[in-house]
């Protein structure tokens, strides 16, 4: 991904922090496995390995000495759903429930394992090379996602300092372990934040391409089509408001509507295309004519023992094949994981709701703060051009007008995740999909810790918007100042922080470290 200004000291510090945090994460997860007398002894005594009833296919062929070493070093990255991604990358979509995991991330793992890591083939079997590929790709994507989030924040918040702090908070995200493991979160965050950033720069077609790639990584990428729809609608509304002044001449209404509708239809169709193609692939594989697959006996036995459905065997078709719209994804979520409206509202799920409580409170707080600060803007859906915007002096910070669509997006994801999903995944669901979690946390920290910046404690330098931006202007600069790392200053001064700042920063740190310890020991985490 192109970085706009490699000379930006803030951007360089974001990249440096992201690399250091990713290296520290990999080191800590390795220590949990390799040091039986040190770190892992403590974690394993307090939190012994959990005999999880998760997908765990047999290792074929038998691992060699170098494979065992790779597993010991990186095995903490291959827990829970990571097994699905690694299995798909190695064997393809062999079992029906594998189709809940979209193909772009496993394909990327396989490409790196067979390409860049091909020289290691004599030493490492495919599974080990895939695990190494996952560690490398997840680290790369999370670093690029931090950079994209910084650039996006500068464009939307119009305050380089808040954008800088938000990007640094992303480096210690509460979903940190999933950004490092063989999960698709880091890739999705990179593509989604990059697409949002490009849309802010007015590059709608490149943005649509990145959003389309994101929908090939995770199903909730489809929701991102709303950004393009809103951008088209806002551009049309602003066009008529600007053109209604004296001496201004409007082009015919039908021409404007046709342009907006055609652009919206094409871009949204492009975003939905990967999802549709993948559902068609699953239909052909599991509902088409029976094909005798060369499945190793241990994998067939696993299917019998666990009740997994193999692709196109014995001519027996799954029930979803006969539906009017045969969508395997919704079928798997319904049948295999009992995902649906209020289905998770059970007394035994209270611990999982408590696990999701911090991100739920932060999301609700962010939405409430924005609505209270911008009641008219919210009532008009941000489609009314403000006088300050016309004069080139829009409000800066989290409550700026351009943040509206992101708050709506985050709130929609929060409500859907809370009421319709396994609520414990809400943290990584929001942390990899929406910048609002990081923007609002940075807003809270800067608002209370006025000493944080050496130049003008809480100053926010507003920059006039450039021409051609879509959802909001993308400034070339958000203000001067040294790029000293505010995150390190906060950590060093933690005992002196206000209680609210301690809660925000403590949440990020606690979920980062605790999630790493629990996930690497195969214990349930977000």
Automatic annotation (TrEMBL):
EC number: 2.4.1.-
InterPro entries the record matches: PIG-V/Gpi18 (IPR007315)
GO molecular function: alpha-1,6-mannosyltransferase activity; GPI mannosyltransferase activity
Pathway of action: Glycolipid biosynthesis; glycosylphosphatidylinositol-anchor biosynthesis
Membrane topology: Multi-pass membrane protein
Location, primary (coarse class): endoplasmic reticulum
GO biological process terms on file: GPI anchor biosynthetic process
Keywords: Endoplasmic reticulum, Glycosyltransferase, GPI-anchor biosynthesis, Membrane, Transferase, Transmembrane, Transmembrane helix
Protein's cellular compartments: Endoplasmic reticulum membrane
Pfam families: Mannosyl_trans2 (PF04188)
Signal peptide: none
GO cellular component: endoplasmic reticulum membrane; mannosyltransferase complex
Bilayer-spanning residue ranges: 130-150, 162-184, 204-230, 257-282, 353-373, 394-419, 504-525
PANTHER family for this protein: GPI MANNOSYLTRANSFERASE 2
Family according to the record: Belongs to the PIGV family.
Its job: Mannosyltransferase involved in glycosylphosphatidylinositol-anchor biosynthesis.
Protein name: GPI mannosyltransferase 2
Origin species: Asarcornis scutulata
Gene: Pigv
């Amino acid at each position: 991904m192109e970085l706009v200004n490699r000379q930006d000291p803030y951007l360089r510090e974001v990249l440096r922090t992201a690399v250091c945090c990713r290296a520290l994460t990999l080191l800590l997860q390795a220590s949990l496995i390799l040091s039986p007398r040190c770190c892992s002894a403590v974690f394993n005594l307090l939190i012994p390995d959990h005999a999880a009833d998760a997908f765990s296919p047999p290792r074929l062929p038998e691992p060699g000495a170098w494979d065992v070493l790779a597993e010991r070093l990186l095995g903490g990255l291959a827990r829970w759903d990571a097994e699905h991604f690694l299995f798909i990358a190695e064997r393809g979509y062999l079992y029906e429930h594998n189709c809940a995991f979209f193909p772009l991330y496993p394909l990327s793992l396989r490409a790196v394992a067979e390409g860049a890591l091909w020289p290691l083939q004599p030493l490492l079997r495919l599974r080990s090379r895939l695990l190494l590929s996952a560690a490398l790709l997840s680290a790369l994507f999370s670093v690029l996602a931090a950079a994209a989030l910084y650039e996006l924040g500068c464009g939307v918040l119009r305050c380089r300092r808040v954008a800088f702090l938000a990007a640094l908070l992303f480096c210690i995200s509460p979903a940190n372990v999933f950004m490092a493991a063989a999960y698709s979160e880091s890739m999705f965050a990179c593509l989604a934040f990059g697409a949002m950033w490009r849309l802010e720069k007015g590059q709608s077609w490149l943005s649509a391409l990145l959003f389309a790639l994101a929908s090939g990584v995770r199903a909730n990428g489809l929701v991102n089509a709303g950004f393009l729809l809103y951008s088209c609608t806002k551009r049309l509304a602003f066009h008529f408001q600007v053109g209604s002044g004296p001496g201004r001449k409007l082009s015919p209404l039908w021409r404007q509507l046709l342009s907006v509708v055609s652009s919206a239809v094409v871009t949204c169709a492009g975003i939905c295309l990967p999802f549709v193609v993948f559902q068609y692939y699953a239909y052909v594989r599991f509902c088409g004519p029976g094909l005798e697959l060369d499945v190793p006996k241990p994998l067939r036995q696993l299917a019998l023992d666990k009740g997994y459905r193999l692709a196109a065997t014995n001519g027996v078709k799954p029930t979803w094949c006969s539906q009017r719209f045969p969508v395997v994804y919704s079928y798997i979520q319904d049948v295999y994981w009992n995902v649906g409206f209020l289905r998770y509202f059970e007394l035994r799920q209270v611990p999982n709701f408590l696990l999701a409580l911090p991100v739920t409170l932060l999301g609700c707080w962010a939405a409430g703060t924005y609505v209270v600060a911008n009641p008219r803007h919210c009532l008009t859906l941000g489609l009314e051009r403000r006088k300050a915007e016309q004069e080139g002096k829009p409000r800066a910070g989290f409550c700026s007008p351009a943040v509206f669509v992101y708050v709506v997006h985050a709130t929609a994801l929060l409500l859907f995740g809370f009421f319709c999903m396994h609520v414990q995944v809400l943290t990584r669901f929001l942390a990899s999909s929406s910048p609002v979690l990081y923007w609002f946390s940075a807003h809270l920290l800067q608002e209370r810790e006025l000493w944080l910046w050496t130049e003008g404690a809480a100053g926010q330098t507003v920059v006039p918007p450039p021409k051609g931006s879509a959802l909001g202007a993308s400034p070339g600069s958000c203000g001067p100042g040294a790029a000293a790392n505010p995150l390190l200053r906060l950590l060093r001064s933690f005992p002196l922080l206000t209680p609210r700042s301690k809660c925000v920063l403590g949440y990020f740190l606690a979920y980062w470290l605790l999630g790493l310890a629990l996930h690497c020991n195969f214990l349930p985490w977000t």
